[in-house]
Write a structure and sequence with these properties.
The chain is built from 13 helices and two strands, in the order βααβααααααααααα. It has 247 residues and is mostly helical. It has a two-stranded antiparallel sheet with strand order 1-2.
């Protein structure tokens, strides 16, 4: 059976997985968690989906440098002959004291995992989750609680879909909406973005005839709570723009 080539700018799952350095099954699971319909590594991905996955994960892949050589120390102390030669003699008691002074291995692994690169949108969402942490909870040793990571990852999937639905294909724009909204309800950001409303404009406290009124809630908050309609937001922003243009 002959397989037709994917459309221009589209890719098959296994091709994108190879580019990311992932097993195809891992990418299939990731796409399914985003709500994409994929059945196997041979499924074809449309260009917007490919761009979204690259944006979220490709930057985490270090580019190979054919001229770069690995230092023996990267393989561990046993491969670094200089380190072995320079290692001073120590008694059993000294070695035991040194080992006890080092942090536990699992703590080092957790710290390494915590410091790994994260997509900017996911990091912004994680910051919003942390801002909602109850005051009586202290920061865990690895930086984040498991429920914080889980919530941020769930929101990340929602915002990735929002970007594909017309919010924007740029991380900085999505992050501005996240900061304004607290990371929740991305569909509201899509509604306003499609009406050519920017996050800065949605954050204005506008009153009568598009005038700044500090006593009012932001346009976004009033729209979120359904105290005003999208049409009313559009009218208020247009009046504010006209006022600024008139000086």
């Amino acid at each position: 059976m002959r397989l037709d080539p994917p459309p221009k700018h589209a890719m098959r799952v296994h091709e994108l997985a190879k580019e990311l350095g992932w097993p195809p099954s891992q990418l299939v699971d990731e796409l399914r968690s985003r709500g994409e319909w994929v059945t196997s590594a041979m499924s074809t991905l449309e260009a917007p989906v490919v761009r979204a996955v690259r944006r979220d994960f490709a930057a985490a892949i270090p580019k190979a440098d054919p001229e770069e050589t690995l230092q023996p120390a990267l393989y561990g102390d046993s491969a670094d002959l200089d380190a072995i030669t320079d290692m001073p003699d120590e008694t059993f008691a000294e070695a035991l004291a040194r080992i006890k002074s080092e942090p536990p291995r699992r703590q080092m692994q957790a710290s390494s995992k915590e410091n790994r690169w994260r997509p900017p949108v996911l990091q912004a969402l994680l910051d919003e989750v942390i801002s909602q942490r109850p005051e009586h909870l202290s920061q865990p040793s690895n930086g984040h609680f498991g429920w914080e990571m889980k919530k941020a990852e769930q929101w990340h999937v929602q915002w990735a879909k929002a970007c594909l639905n017309g919010l924007a294909d740029e991380d900085p724009v999505a992050i501005e909406w996240i900061r304004l909204s607290g990371g929740q309800r991305p569909h509201l950001a899509v509604e306003l973005s499609r009406a050519d409303i920017t996050p800065d404009e949605a954050g204005l406290r506008l009153g009568y005839n598009g005038r700044i009124d500090p006593r009012m809630d932001t346009l976004y908050a009033r729209f979120r709570d359904r105290r005003i309609s999208r049409s009313e937001v559009i009218v208020a922003v247009r009046q504010w723009r006209q006022n600024n243009a008139a000086g």
